[in-house]
Every structure is written in C-alpha cells, then in structure tokens.
Prior knowledge:
The complex is a heterodimer.
Chain A: E1 3-8, H1 11-15, H2 18-28, E2 35-40, E3 52-55, E4 61-64, H3 72-81, H4 94-101, H5 119-124, H6 129-137, H7 140-150, H8 162-171, E5 178-183, H9 192-199, H10 201-215, E6 219-224, H11 229-244, E7 260-265, H12 275-282, E8 306-310, H13 311-323, H14 325-329, E9 339-346, E10 352-357, H15 362-369, E11 379-384, E12 390-393, H16 403-408, E13 417-422, H17 427-441, H18 447-464, H19 472-486, H20 490-494, H21 497-516, E14 530-532, H22 542-546, E15 552-553, E16 561-562, H23 572-576, E17 582-584
Parallel strand pairs in A: 1-2, 5-6, 5-8, 6-7, 9-13
Antiparallel strand pairs in A: 1-3, 3-4, 9-10, 11-12, 11-13, 14-17, 15-16
Helix pairs in contact in A: 2-3, 6-10, 6-13, 7-8, 7-10, 9-11, 10-13, 17-18, 17-21, 18-19, 19-21
Chain B: H1 3-6, H2 15-21, H3 28-39, H4 44-54, H5 58-67, E1 79-84, H6 87-91, H7 94-105, E2 118-123, E3 135-137, E4 140-142, H8 147-163
Parallel strand pairs in B: 1-2
Antiparallel strand pairs in B: 1-3, 3-4
Helix pairs in contact in B: 7-8
Amino acid sequence: MNARIVVGQGSCGLAAGAADVYSALAQLLDASAPATLGITGCIGLCYLEPIVDVYDAQGALHRCVRVKPEDAQRIVDAVRTQDYSLLGALLIEKEDEEFLTKQTRIALRHCGVIDPESIEDYIAHDGYQALEKVLKTMTPEQVIEEIKVSGLAGRGGAGFPTWFKWNAARSSAGEEKYLICNADEGDPGAFMDRAVLESDPHNLIEGMLIAAYAMGAQEAVVYVRAEYPLAIVRLTAAIDAAREHGYLGDHILGTDFSCSIRIKAGAGAFVCGEETALIESLEGSRGMPRLKPPFPAESGYWQKPSNINNVETFANVSWILLNGGTAFAAMGTENSKGTKVFAVTGKVRRGGLVEIPMGKTLRDVIFDIAGGIRDGREFKAVQLGGPSGGCVPAALLDTVIDYKNLSATGAIMGSGGMVVMDDTTCMVGIAKFFLEFTTKESCGKCVHCRIGTKRLSEILERIVSGNGREGDVELLEELCSSVKDGALCGLGQTAPNPILTTIRYFRNEYDAHIREKKCPAGQCKPLLTYAIDAEKCIGCGACARKCPVGAISGELKKPHSVDSEKCIRCGSCQSACRFGAVQVD
Amino acid sequence: MCECQKNKVDLMLLEPTLAEYAAVKGSLITILQHTQEIYGYIPTDAVYHIAERTGETPAKIMGVATFYSQFRFTAVGKYLILLCKGTACYVNGADRIAEAILDELGIRDGETTEDGLFSLSLVSCLGCCSLAPVMMINEKTYGSLTPDKVRQILRDLRKEAQQA
C-alpha cells in the first residue's frame, strides 16, 4: 500500500493557508513518489490548521499541524525514507490529540476523514448503505418509528422531535410534498453545518433522501447561506455525483422511490433561519415569518405540506438507520438523546468543533476538551445559542448539557455556538452587541420586535457610553418582557435573552456602568481614563509620539502625563509603552 | 458623455439569466444574485428590465432586494472586503480591525475608496470562528488578524493592483 498525504481543506484550513501547503506538496510529489496526495474536509481542530495527515504504508496516521509550505519537503522526506520521526515538531501533541479522542462523533463522523469531493470515498465508509437498507427493506412508517426510538430532536435550536415533524408531513393530505434542509446557519459563532456541508456532503444527501422517503416527498431543497461559497461548490458536486451513481433522481437504486435535490443560495437575512421566513425566501419574497398555524407540515412551500430540518439533524439520520435508534438513544440524558456538536470559540485555548453525548457538563467541554481559557486569564461566561441565547456564568459551569438544563439557565442549546469569554469581555457590551444584531436583522413585521429591539439597543448604548440612568435596568426588563410576548417568531421572542441573562448573572456590571460610570472589564471606551504611572514612566516619549491628538505631554526623561480632556481613549499610548506605565481605569 | 448615459448598463448581459429563470416561479432572488454577479451591484435599469420580463412590479423587486444584506445598489471596488463582525470576532477584537481599515483606507461599512480599489462591507459571520478576527477579500479568507496584519494585507493588495 502506498502512503497517503491528506491536506485538510475546509474553510478554516484554507484561511490558514492549506491551499499553499497543498501546492507545495503537489510540486514535490511526482508520479514516482511513494505517496498519493489528497484532500479532506474540516477535522474540527481549527486552531491547529493547516493540518496535513500522513498515513504510512501500514495505514497508521501521523498528523502534522500548523504546517507551512516550507514544511512540505520534510513531509515528503519522511514518506520517502519511511522515517516518520523526521516530522518532529510538526506532529500533533498529545493534549491536542485528546481534543478529538475525548469526543463521540456521529454527525461529524466522516469530517476530516474522507475526501468530500469523492463519492467513492463516502461509499467506502458505509456511505449510502442506510439508504439502500431503508428503500429495500423498510416502510416509511418503520423509518419514522426508528427515528422516534432514537429520540433525535431538531439540532437547529428548537429541539422539536424529528419523527413528529416527519410524521405530520407524511399524514398531511396531498401528493405533492417538499423536504427542505435549513443550511442558513446564521447564528454568529456557529459553524458545524458549514463543516458538514464542506466535509461530508453525501451524508447530508443520504439523510435527506431517507427523510424524503419517510415523509413522501419527491422534491427537496437545500437553503444554504451565500456566505458559504465552498459549501455550495462541494454540495453541488456531491449532488451531481449522487445522481450519476443512481442515488438521486428517478427510481433510486431500482426502487419506486424518486427524489431530486436542488440548492438555493440564501441572500443574507438571519430571520430566514425561522422556517416560515425561509419558505417565503425560497419562494423569492422578503423573508418575513408567517403566522402559525397552519404549520409547514400542513401548508408550507407553495402551500404544500413541507418539512424543514437542520443540517446537523440530517447528518445523524443515516447513522441511526444503520446502527438502530436504540444505539442512538443509549447516549444522552432522560430528555435529550444522542450527541450534539458545539462550535467552541472565543477565549479558549483550543477552539473548534466538539461533538459530545448529551449529559456532559459545560465544564467538560470548555475546560477538559477545549483546554480552558488562554493567556492565563479567568473564565467569565459562555455565550450559548447565539443572539437567541444567553450568557452563563462560572457558577453554572457544572450544568449538564441537555435541552432542559440549558433552558433553565436562561440560555438555550440553540444551534450549538459556544463563545467563551474571559474577564476582559464587558457583559453589557456583549448584550449591546447582540441587540444591535437583532435590531438590524428584525424583519420589521411585528412592532414589538422592530421598535422594541431598537429601544433596547438605545438604552444599552447610553449605559455603555456613561449616560445610563437609575432605573434603566428595570426599564430594560420591562421592555424585554413586552418584546418576548409581542413578537410573532423566534427572532423577536428570544432577542431579549442576552440582556435578561446578563442582568440575571452580571447585574453588578450594569450597576457599575450606571452608578459609578465604570466598565469593570475595561472595554467601554467612554468610561475609561488613561493615566501614566510616574514611577514606571522613564520619559522616553514613545507614547507622546504615537498619540494622535497630542494629549500626552512631558519633558524628555521625566514622567509624562495624559490630558483626559483631549484623550480619545484610542489605546495607542498603551501599546506604544514598553514599560507598562500607561494605566487604564 | 452625459451623466444619464454613464449610468447605463448593458442589459443584454442579463439575457441568459432571464431566459432560464424569468418564467420559473420563486426565482426572483436567484435572478438578483445573477444580476449582482454580472454588474457587481443591482443597477436601477436592471430592476426595471427584470420587472418587465418577470411581470413583477419594480416595487416588489426593490422590496426583495433591499431586504437581503447581500444586495448592493452602488458599484463596489476591485477588492471587496467582507469584515466579519460575528460573536467570536467581536470578542477577539474585530472593532480594532475595523478601526485599522478606517485608518488605512478611510472607509467605513458600505463605503468605497476614492480610487475605486477597496470597498468595505461588515458581515454577520463567515463561519471561521476559530481564526477570529476574520475577513474575506474576493472569496479569499484571512484569519487571526491584527491591526498591523490587516494594514500589510491591504498594502500588498494595493501594490498588486498598481503592478497589474
């Protein structure tokens, strides 16, 4: 067997320079080389990209991380001489390896393992076996029953039982039915769907085909966000390949079941993650949510019965049908079964994709797997569920991960975004960040959401700029409850969550901004004062030269001072000072 | 040439798109995406032309186009900078990157430099959160940015454009 060199080419890998590494390797490997060169998708170890996996002639893996084009020669030499100790410092360290070994991968099981551009590779990894089993040996009712046994729930955020939606669409009257995949991954900080689309597109296609068979749809659409160009390219190629191999189109695998899948690129609107807004957008209109009922299962795309599931939900389906619903349900807690993928980012040491069985704790994910906080700082909060979610403080790190427990904290499971923050993140600032986002993304249909989010943003803006008033927190709470009650769709109903959770757990920060006009995290510029510590200052003048407004004065070799009237709090002086003399309060 | 002539676009370029999609219901967003790919933005003339061919009103088309953040109504520069302002990027200092771009190029969200070389657009999330802060320039992604790194990237692109 020849050795294989595989370069991780997900978006993260490419952004870190994987394409240059690939071409450097390609140049060194001629036809006589003892190794083949290939690609794979996202391994999920985003912080170590670019990653090159070297499989030796015996099939053993030597994983090289943070590879640069100039390392290509060393990799090729190691393969030629079969002396893999040559890889030396390129090899992944043990604790980084544990980032993967501590996970349980089902939805992501092929990501970073197979070549996403090769249907043969997918088939060699049990691909399309579940589909064959379903089409040839199971009735649609049996498929739905198996999914019911598995306990699979919607991974896009709402956590609604998947079998129930499939069954509702199946039971609805009418011949023409649609299956829709929500790949409009809009939550900032979540990228598991992108990973599946880019790294294992056939798994999505297989999951969708099984769902289409179960609910009785002949046409399926994947609604992908336009910000994911690589995902669209890989999925398009995968759909073409599946069609050529007889897995898509008429009489799939020689059975009576026919189904087509097409892609529709979104055009940038967060609200289109809401299923009825997504349907409006698919129909070419403004993506504004519809009143429910009727639910899409009854009247959805073109008023026909429709079912919408998220990418990660579909990514579990073929595994469940192959291994049985009971095997899936064996993992997790009483009310949440199986595994969940989290996109762990922010101030953690090891950021990337983490798939774990439900029932682990937040601490397991953030500290045990992701390695805790970087730069020796302190954990302050973790933001779960994107703009619809909330910030969970250190005291709740032992919260067990499942739908019910996370909701009890005031946050939500959501799509699985986990943005970790340290003591330098201002909690009022983060609430303002999310509210500015929802204000901009509100479609404008409901008054409470359209104007309520705007007013909430304005109050937060005045608090962070030092103009907060006594009673503002209570005003925020009152307005939050009106917006929650008055909005039609999930966007408005959950938009207040970032404010409510930060008030609940970090009230002291709001009070410090309002009463003392201080930002405890040192982030809100209008509340900062810059001063120079006369004992540390050697009078080199470096800060004065950098100051864009001439606010720093002093004689050479004597302590300088800052004129706070003139100071615009840009921080240039602090980065210019090599003696740590510039103090921010 | 008078101003009105200068703003005219070649509507014939839209023909292949309209031939394929004008009669397919629900295709308005796809048609607009193709339009933007062709011209770099959505020209007013094109809106009227699409209206005529699809039977939709210009108001409906503008309503849809202005709803989605992808669509622009003025021409963009040679390099379109999509700066991510997602949560992970925010927490890792995306604001400082925006400041560095403002400082280096003098443009804010939605603006284009006078020489027509760079445009800046803030976007929600590019999905490369582990490399935050991140930006994408003409479909190439740049990660782990610092203000200095951004300045260098922009200067390199400017040099590349001058040499071309």
